[in-house]
Write a structure and sequence with these properties.
Chain B: InterPro entries: Euk_RPA1_DBD_C (IPR047192), NA-bd_OB-fold (IPR012340), Rep_factor-A_C (IPR013955), Rep_factor-A_N (IPR007199), REPA_OB_2 (IPR031657), Rfa1 (IPR004591), RFA1B/D_OB_1st (IPR003871). The complex is a heterodimer of chains A (107) and B (630). By secondary structure, chain A is mainly beta. In chain A, 11% of the residues lie in helices and 43% in strands. Chain B is built from twelve helices and 29 strands. Classes of the chains: A mainly beta (107), B alpha+beta (630).
Chain lengths: 107, 630
């Protein structure tokens, strides 16, 4: 497992804390607009994901890993389909834990 | 009243010291004086006004004296007696074998015919010091001899008003005495530091007599719940002698005056009523039925729990009430109690209610035999039964059990009963119903709630060899199948009808001992051990057919087919595919003896797939619990 480039678990609310840093986020795909994917974070923020999506069609929920280039957008390097259902509540809790007192456990 | 000592009674007794028959005895009434205990019996001087004779009561009559029926200075009619001579003292003594009480204590010893009758209020001679007889004494009685009222040599003793009143009334009839001298105290005012009280209470609950054995020996005990006029309640317990003495006396619904009990702080663990104190009565306690109070058995107040909500009550200390239609009644069973080897009767009934769930209620002792028989006789009419104070256990998921204090009413006249009757007659009869326990017992196939209760790590079980010593301990775990030995005997040949192991039949086929039949075919059923692992460690578990099918992903018959085809590579593949899958397991841990060694045996009771969303929430809660306890 490649641990040289750690990415921080974020949701819409936590993304602004990590601009210019490597993050990972699960979004619900809303649509695409001028080559970028528009998605909704698990805490209902609208975000833009730039980069080249994979050739396979995207499922409802997708995780992207990349550099946050603004408070509301990410330059994605890795795209992973997460399927049609996702427990957003648990993911938000995970983000809180990963950014709170236990963040060292995640990096 | 007109009752008096028989003239020359003593002389009559002496003249016929050993009467041949009871009809031989004329009417003999004597007064008891100087009553005192002599070992197990009571001795006294029998007085007929003229003469006295030393006497003793047969020890069988001691209880009459203890209870206060036979009193000092009272009158008794002698029904059967013997007079013996003590040669060394040339004295006679009278043994009373049978008598009846004619009068309770008179005011004083009868002397001559000039004495008072019962009921006169007389000043005790001790109070008034009159060395010489004076005619200031008022009263209806004329005194002639100086010995009657006055005791010149008696010293004056200062007495309080309470004592005087007490002594004046001491010789009156017991109930009147109690009501007059002893003010009835409200239950709420009792405390362990003031012993001089009388209470007037109704018995609102009566437990069974139980035998017990402890380090100090054996005994019997029962208790009653007492309620006074204010509604305050207290539990009273009686052991051994006192238990035997009062068990028949205390009747449900009747009112009693009680005094000379002891109080102590109630043991919260066994407390059944709201009172800081509990009472103990011993053989010296006084219990008197209040004759002018009608017996009133308070209407039983129920607080019914619908059958489908019994799950959360399992193993709680709180008792529950239920009401339902009786679906079946078992015959009486005899169960041997482990604690003292006593045999107790038990009967199981199944009841159902509008929640479309059923539950089994175990009736014990009298409820099993008497009431249970009543239910059996009524069974085909599907009666309504309401039961108060049941213990909720977890046998087969949910089970109810009666206690000494449980109350059972058949077809009670309460609104719930009518509702149930309506429901059952219109739809309930036809509905198929499930046992409330089946969703909650460890053998549930869906996993359900039990996969999240008693969750432990594998190392919690394997590192604790004493688990499951008494009775199996149940846990749930989330683990991966880490290894399935390909060359173990994974299945047994089973009877297609009853699933029991079959042996090879004479002349081919398979023989089932249970069904006593030979069958050309048999089925294969899994019985295997697999290794499971989680973050804490690993362990071996046993799995039977249903659970193993879920682990392997096919039936034993199918796997056998794979095994026997082309070098068995598809067999190996099947096992490989089953490995490193996560599952939720419900397991039981027990101790087996093997070559004189105790070994832990973990058995899979249920398998369920991991629900990752639910599991995540479970883990998040676990984390917050850990955070909270820091």
């Amino acid at each position: 497992m490649d641990t040289s480039k750690p990415a921080i678990f974020v949701n819409g609310g936590l993304l602004p804390m990590h601009v210019q840093k490597r993050v990972r986020i699960v979004i619900q795909v809303l649509g695409s607009d001028r080559g970028a994917v528009i998605g909704k974070s698990t805490d209902d923020h609208q975000l833009t994901v730039k980069g080249t999506p994979p050739s396979v069609p995207l499922t409802n929920f997708v995780e992207v890993i990349g550099i946050a280039d603004s408070e509301k957008s990410i330059q994605a390097e890795i795209w992973t389909n997460f399927g049609d259902t996702f427990d957003t509540y648990s993911y938000n809790q995970l983000c809180q834990l990963a950014n709170g007192e236990y963040q060292l456990l995640f990096l | 009243m007109g009752q008096w000592v028989s003239p020359d009674a003593i002389a009559a007794l002496l003249s016929n010291p050993k009467p041949d028959s009871l009809t031989d005895i004329p009417e003999i009434i004597v007064q008891i004086t100087k009553l005192e205990p002599k070992g197990k019996s009571y001795g006294f001087d029998a007085n007929d006004g003229k003469m006295k004779i030393k006497a003793i009561f047969n020890s069988r009559l001691s209880s009459e004296i203890i209870s206060g029926n036979i009193q000092n200075l009272g009158l008794i009619r002698i029904l059967d007696y013997t007079v013996n001579e003590i040669p060394s003292k040339s004295e006679n003594y009278l043994i009373i074998t049978k008598c009846e009480v004619v009068s309770p204590a008179l005011a004083m010893e009868i002397k001559d015919e000039k004495n008072e009758e019962l009921g006169e209020k007389k000043e005790e001679s001790g109070i008034i010091l009159k060395p010489k007889q004076e005619h200031e004494i008022k009263g209806e009685v004329k005194k002639e001899s100086s010995g009657i009222l006055l005791k010149p040599k008696q010293e004056m003793v200062a007495k309080s008003a309470a004592q005087i009143v007490n002594e004046q009334h001491r010789n009156m009839a017991p109930t009147a005495r109690m009501a007059m001298t002893r003010r009835v105290h409200p239950l709420v005012s009792l405390n362990p530091y003031q012993g001089n009280w009388t209470i007037k209470v109704r018995v609102t609950s009566k437990g069974n007599m139980r035998a017990y054995k402890n380090a100090r020996g054996e005994g019997c005990v029962f208790n009653v719940e007492l309620t006074d006029e204010d509604g305050t309640q207290i539990q009273a317990t009686m052991f051994n002698e006192a238990a035997r003495k009062f068990y028949d006396k205390f009747q449900l619904g009747k009112v009693y005056y009680i005094s000379k009990g002891t109080l102590r702080v109630a043991n919260k663990q066994f407390r059944t009523v709201q009172n800081d104190y509990e009472m103990t009565l011993n053989e010296n306690s006084e219990v008197e039925e209040a004759s002018n109070e009608a017996a009133f058995i308070p209407e039983t107040k129920f607080n019914f729990v619908p059958i489908d909500q019994l799950g959360p009550c399992v193993n709680s200390t709180e008792l529950v009430d239920v009401v339902g239609i009786v679906q079946s009644v078992s015959p009486t069973m005899s169960i041997r109690r482990k604690s003292n080897n006593e045999i107790v009767p038990k009967r199981d009934i199944t009841i159902a209610d509008e929640t479309r769930k059923t539950v089994v209620v175990s009736l014990w002792n009298d409820l099993a035999t008497d009431l249970g028989q009543e239910l059996l006789d009524l069974a085909d009419k599907s009666p309504v039964v309401a039961i108060k104070s049941l213990k909720v256990g977890d046998f087969q998921g949910v089970s109810l059990s009666t206690l000494g204090r449980s109350i059972v009413q058949i077809n009670p006249d309460i609104p719930e009963s009518k509702k149930l009757r309506c429901w059952y007659d219109s739809e309930g009869k036809e509905t198929s119903m499930a046992s409330v326990g089946s969703g909650l017992s460890p053998s549930t196939k869906s996993g359900g709630r039990s996969m999240y209760s008693d969750r432990v790590s594998i190392s919690h079980m394997t590192s604790n060899p004493s688990l499951g010593g008494d009775k199996p301990a149940f846990f749930s775990i989330r683990a991966y199948i880490s290894f399935i030995k390909p060359d173990q005997s994974m299945w047994y040949r089973a009877c297609k009808a009853c699933n029991k192991k079959v042996t090879e039949g004479v002349g081919g086929g398979y023989w089932c001992e249970g069904c006593q039949k030979n069958d050309a075919e048999c089925s294969l059923r899994y019985i295997m051990v697999v290794k499971v692992s989680d973050a804490s460690g690993e362990g071996w578990v046993s799995a039977f057919n249903e659970e193993a099918e879920k682990i392997i992903g096919c039936s034993a018959d199918e796997l056998d087919k794979l095994k026997s085809e082309e070098e068995g590579s598809s067999y190996q593949l099947k096992l490989k595919e089953a490995t490193w899958n996560p599952h939720l397991f419900r397991v039981s841990v027990a101790q087996n003896e093997y070559n004189n060694e105790k070994r832990q045996r973990i058995t899979v009771r249920a398998v369920a797939p991991v629900d990752f969303a639910a599991e995540s929430r479970f883990l998040l809660e676990d984390i917050s619990k850990m955070k909270g306890s820091q």
